[in-house]
Each structure stands twice: as structure tokens, then as C-alpha cells.
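Sorry to interrupt, but I need a hand with the structure work. I would like you to pick a protein and set down its sequence and fold. Please put the record directly below this note.
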Amino acid sequence: MREGEIKDLTDGSPFRLILGFAVPMLLGLLFQQFYNMMDTIIVGKCLGVTALAAVGSTGSINFMINGFCIGVCSGFAIPVAQKFGAGDYKALRRFAANAGWLSAAFAIVMTGVVGVLCMDILRWMDTPNDIIQGAYDYIFVIFLGIPVTYLYNLLAGIIRSLGDSKTPVYFLLLSSVMNIFLDFITILFLDMGVAGPAWATVVSQGVSGILCLFYMIKHFPVLKMSADERKPDWELMKTLCVMGIPMGLQYSITAIGSVILQAAVNSLGSMAVAAVAAGSKVSMFFCCPFDALGATMATYAGQNVGAGKIRRVSEGVKAANLLGFAYSAVAFAVLFLGGRQIALLFMDSRETEIIGQVSVFLIGNSMFYIPLTLVNVVRFAIQGMGYSVFAILAGVCEMAARGFVGFFLIPVWGFLPACFASPLAWIAADLFLIPAFFHCVKKLSSMEREMPEAVCGKEASRQSLRIRSLPGLKWRKAGR
């Protein structure tokens, strides 16, 4: 990458910056969900509803484990964004290097632990006997790919922290095409069953991660490190863990509620599992804009906090919410009118009961996309500001809501409550996140007012501020 392609999000219209940054990320997420959905379509069409249920039954545990990986990497990238905003490139490189050391350690430990416990986890979730072996064959391979999940997501997070949301998308597009191609090869020609799409996902993500690494080495002068900058630093690792682990736990705690919900759905039988699996895949595809806005706000807030521009964070949240609300209305209209037709992508038209359940699931979720907008925009803005511990508390709210549905509503009313479990979780998270955001803004604004000299743009930030990437960010005078 040429140095000029690095994007500064601390100057200019927040609306235009957020839209311009989010659109390339959205394209990448859409293709990522597209090939995830293609996995499901290919499995359902080529291997049948039982295989579809087997793969679908692993969705929540997959999200719990790999979601932790993704969250940790997102947290590791926040200090990089803050140091970029502050103009402290030496510290930026040291944080990037130590994030690499930590990611490697986390990947090794997690792969070993979840690999050993994989079948036990599926039994704890009460996975139906007719699909448990297929579920194991799929998710075990996915868990073997935890190292490549860390590789891609850490490097993509660092690239985005420097303001470049396009480059990771290019490699993701390549891996998406590769994944779909490998799906057909492993299922139709190699006869690998449900393990085939899992291997396709791992291999294609590994390729995109390696390409990101080579590209960064060649095209990012700001990341070229000296031997001293590459050394492990326990203090920096502690800071990274304070930022990354809460974000990872937020995903995992949220996913615990999904695991409880999935276990309740499993008790309804394979057909209900297949309906939730298909509905979830479509919903994840339609939710990509919310994910793109969230990831954008993490970088946007991180850079602006690093530059000492707290007011711009609030302006950015307003702009991002406006974009999300407009999209929510469009998405609801599409899913309300076309939910049944979309369900036909996953199964034969004779599966009328499952098709109806998928349609109800999609309508129930899309009715509440406005609360989902707030969850993503506000939560990631808080994380970019340096208060990632709040993400855990928001995750607890989501977990409690989904757990309530799984423990108390599904056993009584069956499938219908599963369609509204996620909306209830989003509302519960919003009730915590919105007041938390105003608290964070107030606290940072108070710190800014108490400074002995005003912060006037990035140049002042570079010369007079050092941003410490810890919850409760503290500014202090520091010479360069």
C-alpha cells in the first residue's frame, strides 16, 4: 500500500468518512456471509436436510469460540488505531508486534482445548443423535482452523486501524470464490461429506490471512519494525489483554446465550434445527451492514480519541445510526415480502413446514433491526474509546435474554419464541449500552477540560498527548 492510501478519520465530515470506510467493509462481509450461506445451500441441496441440520447445530458453538478470536483481534487493533490517531508510530509498531505474539499464544492454547472437548460440547448441547456425528465432523475441522482465524482477523484489524478498509476486502473476495469452489470439490468429487465445507473454509481463510501478511510487509512503511520494536513487552501485552479479552468475552458471553438457545431448539428435533440454521444464515447475510458500521465505529472512535477529538465521536455515532436506521427499513421490507422465496434456496419446495418456519424467523428478526443498529454502533464506539469492559456487561445482557427464551419460553411455546430471542437480546443490550455511551463521553470530555492546555487537532495531539489504551483513558503531557 502506498502511504497516501492510509485514511485519517479525524478530519472531515463524519457521515462521509463513515460511509466511505464502511462500504468496502460491507462488501467484504457480504461476500464472507455469501460463501458461508453457500456452504449451507450446497450442504442442504447436495447432502440433504439431515446434513444441513448437522452443520446448523454447530452455529452457536462456532460463534462462541471463533467469536472470541474475532473479538480479541478487534480489541488488539484498538490501541493501534489510537496510536495512529495520536501520531505515535513507534508505539503503534510495538503494539502491533505484541498483538502478534499474544495471538499466536492464544491460538495454540485454544486449538488444543476445544479440539479435545469438541464431542463433549456437542453432547452438553443435547445435539440430536441422528446429526451429532456430522456436527462433530464439521466443527472439529473448523476448530483446527483457529490459528488462521487469528491470523486473518488480527492483520485485517491492524490494516483497518490505519484507515484502510479496502485491502482486507480484496483478499476476502478471493477467499470467498476459493471457498465456494472448494465446497463443490470436497463434496462432489472428494466425497468428504460435511467435513468438506469445513476444510474449504479453513483453507480459504488461511490463504487470505497469508496474503494480508505479505501485503503488509511489502506495502506498509509505517509498520516496518526494528528488532527492539518486535520484542515482547509485558506491559504492552497487559494493555492489549485489557482491550482484547473483554471484547472476546463479549462475543463468547453473548454466544453462551446462543448455546443455551441452540440446546433448546435441538430439543425440538432436526427439522426445527434446520429451520433455525437456514434462517440464521440469511439473517447474518442481511445483518452485514450493521457489522460493517460497528467495525467502522471502532476504528473511527479509536482514531478520534487518539487525536483528542471527543465531540467527533458523538457526531460519528449519530451519522452511523442514521445509516443503520435507513437500511433497517429496507431490509425488513425485503424479508417480509420475500422470506419464503429466500428459504427455497436452502431446501426442496416440498419442505413446506420448514419453509414457513424460516419465513417467520426472518420476519421476527428483521422487525427489530433498529435496536440491532444501536447495539453495533454504540458498543463498538465504546470499545474504540477504550472502555471495552462495558462490552462484557452488554454481552451479559444478551446472554440473559437468550437464556431466558431457551430455558423458559421454548419448552412451553415451541419454535415461535426462538424467532424473537435475538431481538429480545438486542433490546436488553441497548438498555445498558446507551447510558454507558453517554457516561464514557462525559468522562472523556471531563478529562479534556481538565487538561492544562487545549487539544486542537492532530498536531497538538501528537506533540502534547500520549493516549494510554486502558479503560478510563488518561491523557498526560509527553514530549515526542
Q: What stands out?
A: The beta strands are 466-467, 475-476.
